[in-house]
Amino acid sequence: MPDPAASRSTALQGLLSRHSVGPRWLTEPAPSTGQLEQAVACALRAPDHGLLVPWRAVLVPSEQRDALGERFAVFAAAVGKSADDIQRERERAAKGPMLVAWVAHIIPDIAEVPEHEQWMTVGGALTNFLNAMHLMGFGAKTLSGRKCQHPAVTEAFCAADEQLVAFICVGTPSQVGKPRCADNVAAAWSQWHGNAPA
Ligand SMILES: Cc1cc2nc3c(=O)[nH]c(=O)nc-3n(C[C@H](O)[C@H](O)[C@H](O)COP(=O)(O)O)c2cc1C
C-alpha cells in the first residue's frame, strides 16, 4: 500500500522543482492527447470564484504550424521588422513538439467576481497546467510577446471578448536544466501584526 506521507513528499518535490524549459531544449515525444487532457483536467482544478472557467486551451496541431507561422510573419511585417526578423518570427511557430494557445475570457461587471479574480484563475490554471506537464516528465515554457496582442494572431484564436494570453511550448527536455536561482521564501510572506480600526 502506498505511503501517503511519501506521496505527499514526492508531490511537493515535484512542485518545488518546476522550471521552464525553452523550445530550443524540447524534443519529441510531445505529450499524448491523454496526457494533454490530464494537464487540462489539472488546470480546471485552479481556484475559480463562481466557477466561471475564464480560460480555454487551444492545441495548435503540427499541420497548422505553417499557417500560424504566416500569421506571426504578418505581425512582424506590420510592426516593421526586417526581412530576417520576419523569417525568424515565422519559424517560431514551428518550435517545440507541442504548442498550446492559452485564451482568457474575462467577463466584466460581475460584482462578486471582479476581473482581477478571474485573471487569478487564468494564471492559476496555466500554472497547474505547467506543473502537471512537469510532473509527467515534460518540459514547458510560456511565451507571449507583442504578437499575442496583434490581430493577425489574436483573430485566429479569440472571439471579440477574449484575449490571447500566451503560447505554451511543451515537449521532452533534451537535457537536465540548470537549477533555478534560489527562491527568497522569507521575502514572500509576513505576519500581520494587527491594526484594528480606530
Ligand atoms: C503569461 C506569460 C507570458 C510569458 N511570456 C514570455 C515571453 O514572451 N518570453 C520569455 O522569455 N518569457 C516569458 N514568460 C516567462 C517564462 O515563461 C518563464 O516563466 C520565465 O522565464 C521564468 O522561468 P521559470 O518558469 O523557470 O521560473 C512568460 C510567462 C507568463 C506567465
Automatic annotation (TrEMBL):
<dbReference type="InterPro" id="IPR029479">
    <property type="entry name" value="Nitroreductase"/>
</dbReference>
<keyword id="KW-0521">NADP</keyword>
<keyword id="KW-0288">FMN</keyword>
<comment type="similarity">
    <text>Belongs to the nitroreductase family.</text>
</comment>
<dbReference type="InterPro" id="IPR026021">
    <property type="entry name" value="YdjA-like"/>
</dbReference>
<dbReference type="Pfam" id="PF00881">
    <property type="entry name" value="Nitroreductase"/>
</dbReference>
<feature type="domain" description="Nitroreductase">
    <location>
        <begin position="16"/>
        <end position="171"/>
    </location>
</feature>
<dbReference type="InterPro" id="IPR052530">
    <property type="entry name" value="NAD(P)H_nitroreductase"/>
</dbReference>
<keyword id="KW-0520">NAD</keyword>
<dbReference type="InterPro" id="IPR000415">
    <property type="entry name" value="Nitroreductase-like"/>
</dbReference>
<keyword id="KW-0560">Oxidoreductase</keyword>
<protein>
    <recommendedName>
        <fullName>Putative NAD(P)H nitroreductase</fullName>
        <ecNumber>1.-.-.-</ecNumber>
    </recommendedName>
</protein>
<keyword id="KW-0285">Flavoprotein</keyword>
